[in-house]
């Protein structure tokens, strides 16, 4: 059986992810208490379901503390478990709750919304540490759906190396494992002919490839990732997210992410995401 367990912060898009999986043929269970996970999987396994998605979050209450233990036991029994952890910046979550007028599950009347989100992060910390984290702060619903579909198609037995471009002016991605800053390089944004283009367009590529420092920095980042990648693999990591940032996330970071993905494509399972272009 393949089990995709979805967790994360309230308002981060867990319902969207679960709907994508349901459309993909998974048997989905929403808001399952963590204490019932193993019994539920046993029942579904005996019933012949081989693709299951379960959403578990802070609504599980005190039993949430046992979730990492339950996940480990399921893996030891041969269940193919993937954990997706969705999160977002606090100001984004506050805005989403304000727009939908939903009540936060940890709201008791004496906590502010910001305090509820902070407490929720603390309660979910152990789960997020060992999962594939997705920062949905700057993502549209359609982009999140597309990213979830990409993840479903991955080979679980191999580490996935994910290169993500972003703009520092929009904040560093919460899901980044390694972050590199390429803002010191000349910015194509200030060339009026290049300004509307992206780092995937030939004129921008030519512009950056004519800058020696861009070549040196690309080589240094590539060598660093290549040197330490075996260490992450030995640590039994399933995902490694390398975030490349420039000012706006349109030119330099996109170019670097594409070039790095191209280099590692034959060595690893690779995904490329351009947060600001999405």
TrEMBL record:
Residue intervals of the RapZ-like N-terminal domain: 1-152
InterPro entries in alphabetical order: P-loop_NTPase, RapZ-like, RapZ-like_N, RapZ_C
Sequence positions that bind ATP: 8-15
Upper taxonomic lineage: Bacteria, Pseudomonadati, Pseudomonadota, Betaproteobacteria, Nitrosomonadales
Keywords assigned by UniProt, alphabetized: ATP-binding, GTP-binding, Nucleotide-binding
Gene3D superfamilies referenced in this protein's UniProt entry, alphabetically: P-loop containing nucleotide triphosphate hydrolases (3.40.50.300)
PANTHER family: RNASE ADAPTER PROTEIN RAPZ
Record: residues binding GTP: 57-60
Molecular function GO terms recorded: ATP binding; GTP binding
Protein name per its UniProtKB record: UPF0042 nucleotide-binding protein
Annotated ranges, domain RapZ C-terminal: 160-277
Pfam families: PapZ_C, RapZ-like_N
Source organism of this protein record: Sulfurirhabdus autotrophica
């Amino acid at each position: 059986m393949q089990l995709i367990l979805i967790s994360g912060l309230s308002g981060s898009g867990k319902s969207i992810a679960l709907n994508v999986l349901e459309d993909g043929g998974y048997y989905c269970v929403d808001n399952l208490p963590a204490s019932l996970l193993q019994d539920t999987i046993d029942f579904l396994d005996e019933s012949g379901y081989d693709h299951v998605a379960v959403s578990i979050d802070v609504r599980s209450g005190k039993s949430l503390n046992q979730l990492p233990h339950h996940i480990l036991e399921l893996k030891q029994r041969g269940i193919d478990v993937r954990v997706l952890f969705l999160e977002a910046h606090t100001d984004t979550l506050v805005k989403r709750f304000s727009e939908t007028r939903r009540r936060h599950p940890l709201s008791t009347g004496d906590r502010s919304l910001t305090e509820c989100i902070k407490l929720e992060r603390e309660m979910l910390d152990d789960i997020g540490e060992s999962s594939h984290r997705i920062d949905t702060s700057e993502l549209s619903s359609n982009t999140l759906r597309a990213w979830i579909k990409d993840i479903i198609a991955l080979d679980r037995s191999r580490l996935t190396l994910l290169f993500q471009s972003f703009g520092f002016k929009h904040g560093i991605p919460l899901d980044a494992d390694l972050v590199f800053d390429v803002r010191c390089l000349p910015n194509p944004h200030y060339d009026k002919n290049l300004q509307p283009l992206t780092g995937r367009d030939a004129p921008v590529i030519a512009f950056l490839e004519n800058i020696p420092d861009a070549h040196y920095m690309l080589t240094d980042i590539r060598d660093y990732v290549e040197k330490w990648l075996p260490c992450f693999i030995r640590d039994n990591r399933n995902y490694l997210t390398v975030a490349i940032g420039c000012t706006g996330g349109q030119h330099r970071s996109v170019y670097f992410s594409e070039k790095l993905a191209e280099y590692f494509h034959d060595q690893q399972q690779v995904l490329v995401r351009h947060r600001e272009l999405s």
